[in-house]
Fold:
Amino acid sequence: MPMTDINLRIPSSIEPFLKNANERTRLAQYAMLLLPYVSDKTISYGKAAELLGISKIEVMEIYGAAGVPYYDCDFSQVLVDSSAIDFALEGK
Structure:
């Protein structure tokens, strides 16, 4: 993936973590930079994956490991969907 340099102003206390990151951690850091744009739907998970040069599943795994859910619904919607599936399966 082509890379570029930018100046990013950060608290000095964070610098050691950024300088000593392994490849997987660095990828997660890049993904976190994109998270606000994924969250507000400016870009999709697929577009984030494309920008990072990885698969959509890998992006989902990175965000999932950070506690960011892929599905954005509350538990009541899960119950409704579950009931619909149960109803559909009863007829089989």
